[in-house]
């Protein structure tokens, strides 16, 4: 008998690069997946490192795209931001903030330790209602397009393994150890409850 599909959430800071590439790869593989950011605002690279473009989470990817096109088509084509926004708007209309979402997931994957801490902190601050467990796993991915692609495939393989286990609660630690050995990465892992 087949296990029900895992409900997955992927979280990075801005819901732009890493979580969206993972979202793209997982949904292509048939997973039920949503992606989020944990920031208070959405930051995209600007003309210089200390001048990012800042948007509200309610701003659509399309609006960001046209704003940057107007500001400096050449710069934002060169640095890949317009290409990334084009991909994003094919996946969903706008970035979403994790702290505003009340849906339940079986597995939440974060892309950096700071985001993992923010997700766990948010889960702990919520009132427990159903006591449904959710596994939170951190897979460190450097915030650039190349690493996002590599990280997305690693996370996809991990999700495929977990989807195939008959008993995720008992098998998850073994699966993570195996993946740590194969990838040379260390994965943080904890269980929270809804």
Automatic annotation (TrEMBL):
One of its GO terms (biological process) is mRNA 3'-end processing. It catalyses: O-phospho-L-threonyl-[protein] + H2O = L-threonyl-[protein] + phosphate; O-phospho-L-seryl-[protein] + H2O = L-seryl-[protein] + phosphate. Keywords: Hydrolase, mRNA processing, Nucleus, Protein phosphatase. GO terms for molecular function: RNA polymerase II CTD heptapeptide repeat phosphatase activity. Its EC number is 3.1.3.16. The keyword Nucleus applies. InterPro entries: RNA_pol_II_suA. The keyword Transmembrane does not apply. Gene3D superfamilies: 3.40.50.2300. This is RNA polymerase II subunit A C-terminal domain phosphatase SSU72. The lineage of its organism: Eukaryota, Metazoa, Chordata, Craniata, Vertebrata. The gene is Ssu72_1.
């Amino acid at each position: 008998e087949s296990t029900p599909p895992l409900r997955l959430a992927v979280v990075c800071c801005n819901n732009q690069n890493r979580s969206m590439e993972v979202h793209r790869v997982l949904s292509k593989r048939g997973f039920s997946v949503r992606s989020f950011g944990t920031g208070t605002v959405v930051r995209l690279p600007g003309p210089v490192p200390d001048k990012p473009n800042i948007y509200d989470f309610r701003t659509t990817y399309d609006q960001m795209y046209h704003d940057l096109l107007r500001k400096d088509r050449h710069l934002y084509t060169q640095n890949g931001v317009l290409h990334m926004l084009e991909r994003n708007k094919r996946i969903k209309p706008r970035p979403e903030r994790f702290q505003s979402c009340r849906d339940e997931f079986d597995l939440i994957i974060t892309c950096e330790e700071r985001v993992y801490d923010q997700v766990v902190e948010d889960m702990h601050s919520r009132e427990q209602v159903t006591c449904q467990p959710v596994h939170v796993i951190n897979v460190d991915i450097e915030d650039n397009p190349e690493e996002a692609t590599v990280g997305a495939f690693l996370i996809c393989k991990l999700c495929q393994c977990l989807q195939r286990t008959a008993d995720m609660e008992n098998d998850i630690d073994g699966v993570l150890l195996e993946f740590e050995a194969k990838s040379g990465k260390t994965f943080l892992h904890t269980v929270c409850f809804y």
